[in-house]
């Protein structure tokens, strides 16, 4: 948690609200832990107006930093994608609860089967993150893989300004979004592995060169339960 | 009427605990559990988890109402989208007239769990808590749970909170839960 600081180090000097160190048991109204205006995260509203959008440029800048951060000391592309995935995972866990509570009270219900969960991701999650729905939802046609589902995005927002070098052509930075999806699935007790794959052809005239498939592979116990409750709810 | 409220993570570790008493019909909001009952409460609450895990897949609602009963201890459950469980143990007082209940409470007397209690609580079914399965009580607990859920979501929105297995230590969260308890129960 809190790392020991040098007593008169530059970090303390650079802190605008630096106060002399106090005993932990000091009154509850001072210190950085308690905001001076008394407003905490609990005083804020959970619902936001629909127009609350963020700048895409600043997101792209932050995202490039995240990729750079993840790229440090990685052993390969898979490792890099895994790190991006891990960065997204906690977001998914938290968004699941946030998006559910923003639903009107009548339609607040936990997803009980795979289809409801994937619809929640395709519609609510995408709408919240990217301002539009995901483009398609597909089930694997391979009879050997009944546990695989695909969420398809023709133009992932996170990849808007990412150009992947030739020698890393397997990389898709939407692994970060895959991590968010994985977080939602794990949180809702549908443990899954989610990976991002580029499927757009690089040829001239391709309509969606950045087309990405998020492959959702559920754990066997999810399918087992699905069969047991018979897709109810 | 005393309440024991706990938030349990998907791995069944307690994240938050709070004890309080009723504030309705002249209650002072103080819990009346004996030292022994307080230890027992944790057992009773956790033992109802099996039932929650069974019910949560047949009912997509967040609020599952009263799901378990152990003598005079009733357990109401609420399951969030991320499979965090809110459990409320409530122990209705026995007496028919409220004045009597307050007298009992003032003495700090533990209310005996008798069959008579169940009969008498049916008489006084309009007051929240006297009859744990009445629609009024269910509605009151639902409101309480929803308010706690809202604050729980705010708590996990903190970037320093690692969902969903970190204890909630915020004193403001505790204040908010206590306020919801005063308001509805």
From TrEMBL, chain A:
InterPro entries per UniProt: NO_sig/Golgi_transp_ligand-bd, TRAPP-I_su5, TRAPP_component
Region (Disordered): 1-38
Endoplasmic reticulum keyword on record: yes
Lineage, top ranks: Eukaryota, Fungi, Dikarya, Ascomycota, Pezizomycotina
Entry's localization field: Endoplasmic reticulum; Golgi apparatus, cis-Golgi network
GO annotation, biological process: endoplasmic reticulum to Golgi vesicle-mediated transport
Subunit structure as annotated in this protein's UniProt entry: Part of the multisubunit TRAPP (transport protein particle) complex.
Cellular component aspect of the GO annotation: endoplasmic reticulum; TRAPPI protein complex; TRAPPII protein complex; TRAPPIII protein complex
Protein name: Trafficking protein particle complex subunit
The organism of origin for this protein: Triangularia setosa
Annotated keywords: Endoplasmic reticulum, ER-Golgi transport, Golgi apparatus, Transport
Function: Plays a key role in the late stages of endoplasmic reticulum to Golgi traffic.
Family note: Belongs to the TRAPP small subunits family. BET3 subfamily.
TrEMBL record, chain B:
Pfam families assigned: Sedlin_N
UniProt cross-references to SUPFAM superfamilies, sorted A to Z: SNARE-like
A GO CC annotation given for this chain: cytoplasm
Gene3D superfamilies, per the entry: 3.30.450.70
InterPro entries (alphabetical): Longin-like_dom_sf (IPR011012), Sedlin (IPR006722)
GO-annotated biological processes: endoplasmic reticulum to Golgi vesicle-mediated transport
CDD domains, alphabetized: TRAPPC2_sedlin
Protein name: Sedlin
Taxonomic lineage from the root: Eukaryota, Fungi, Dikarya, Ascomycota, Pezizomycotina
């Amino acid at each position: 948690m809190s790392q020991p600081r040098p007593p008169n180090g530059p970090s303390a000097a650079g802190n605008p609200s630096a106060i002399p160190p106090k005993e932990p048991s000091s009154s509850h109204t001072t210190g950085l832990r308690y905001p001076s205006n008394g407003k905490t995260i609990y005083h804020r509203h959970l619902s936001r107006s629909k127009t609350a959008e963020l700048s895409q440029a600043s997101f792209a800048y932050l995202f490039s930093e995240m990729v750079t951060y993840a790229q440090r000391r990685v052993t390969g592309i898979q490792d890099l994608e895994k790190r991006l995935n891990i960065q997204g995972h906690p977001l998914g866990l938290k968004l699941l609860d946030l998006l559910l509570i923003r639903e009107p009270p009548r339609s607040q219900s936990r997803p009980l089967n795979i289809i409801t969960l994937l619809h929640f991701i395709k519609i609510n999650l995408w709408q919240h993150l990217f301002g539009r729905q995901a483009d398609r939802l597909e089930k694997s046609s391979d009879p050997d893989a009944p546990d695989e589902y695909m969420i398809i995005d023709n133009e992932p927002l996170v990849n808007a300004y990412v150009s992947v070098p030739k020698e890393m052509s397997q990389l898709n930075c939407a692994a970060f979004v895959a991590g968010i999806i994985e977080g939602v699935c794990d949180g809702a007790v549908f443990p899954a592995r989610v990976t991002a794959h580029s499927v757009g052809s690089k040829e001239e005239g391709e309509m969606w060169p950045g087309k990405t498939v998020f492959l959702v592979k559920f754990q066997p116990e999810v399918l087992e339960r699905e069969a047991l409750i018979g897709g109810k709810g | 009427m005393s309440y024991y409220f706990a938030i349990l993570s998907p791995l069944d570790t307690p994240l938050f605990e709070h004890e309080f008493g009723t504030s309705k019909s002249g209650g002072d909001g103080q819990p009346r559990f004996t030292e022994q009952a307080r230890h027992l409460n944790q057992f009773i609450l956790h033992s109802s988890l099996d039932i929650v895990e069974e019910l949560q897949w047949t009912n997509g609602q967040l609020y599952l109402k009263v799901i378990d009963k152990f003598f005079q201890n009733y357990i109401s459950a609420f399951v969030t989208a991320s499979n965090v469980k809110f459990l409320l143990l409530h122990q209705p007082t026995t007496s028919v007239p409220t004045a009597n209940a307050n007298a009992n409470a003032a003495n700090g007397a533990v209310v005996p769990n008798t069959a008579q209690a169940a009969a008498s609580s049916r008489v006084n079914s309009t007051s929240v808590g006297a009859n744990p399965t009445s629609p009024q009580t269910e509605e009151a607990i639902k409101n309480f749970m929803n308010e706690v859920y809202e604050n729980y979501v705010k708590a996990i929105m903190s970037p320093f909170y690692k969902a969903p297995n970190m204890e909630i230590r915020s004193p403001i969260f505790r204040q908010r839960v206590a306020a919801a308890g005063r308001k509805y129960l």
